[in-house]
Structure formats: structure tokens, C-alpha cells
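Supplementary Methods. Inverse-folding protocol.

Structures were first reduced to a C-alpha cell string of length 108. This string, shown here, constituted the complete conditioning input.
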């Protein structure tokens, strides 16, 4: 099945709508653009907002995997195919076969 290509804003909106439907996710926890505070144009991925503990990040990982399986972000660089934990920045799921090696930022 072919992935549907969406913009960065649409992808973030889809993540947060699916996250809102999950049980056990505290109010106010959401996916945000990474680097934190970036606008869609400058964003290199998504990350968890503050207040997301390990259990919530596990739920966010599952939501990210489901959404990434269905949608690709327009103009994204193809990553290395390995999913990073949500506590790290998630690279955009690629819309086309771009260059490999999108960077995933670690915790400071």
C-alpha cells in the first residue's frame, strides 16, 4: 500500500489527533516540532512535549509508528530505517527515496 504524502503541519496534526484518542495520556502532552519552538519550515522532526514520562513516551512511540506507516512527509530525507525512542527527535518519514542518514538528536 502506498503512503499518502502530507505536509509537516498535517503530519503533526495527525500525530496529535491520534495521541488524543489514546487512554492514559495526560492532558497537555503532545507531539511538537523539533527543534523545540521551530516552525514547520525549519523543523527536522517531532519530539514529545514536556511532561511525557516513560510510559507516555511508549504510547507516543506506538502512535508515531502507526502514523508513519500510513503517511510520508513531503520533502523529507530518508532516514536509516531505525526508529528512535520518542524522547529523541523523530526524523520525518520520507516521501521519496532521498539520501540516507537523517540525523536523530539525542538527549542533552
Amino acid at each position: 500500500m502506498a503512503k499518502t504524502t502530507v505536509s509537516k503541519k498535517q503530519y503533526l496534526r495527525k500525530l496529535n489527533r491520534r495521541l488524543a484518542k489514546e487512554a492514559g495520556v495526560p492532558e497537555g502532552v503532545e507531539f511538537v516540532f523539533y527543534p523545540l519552538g521551530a516552525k514547520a519550515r525549519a523543523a527536522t522532526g517531532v519530539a514529545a512535549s514536556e511532561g511525557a514520562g516513560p510510559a507516555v513516551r511508549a504510547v507516543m512511540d506506538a502512535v508515531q509508528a502507526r502514523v508513519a506507516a500510513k503517511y510520508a512527509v513531503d520533502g523529507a530525507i530518508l532516514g536509516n530505517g531505525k526508529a528512535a525512542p520518542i524522547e529523541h527527535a523523530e526524523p520525518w518519514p520520507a516521501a521519496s527515496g532521498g539520501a540516507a542518514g537523517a540525523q536523530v538528536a539525542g538527549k542533552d
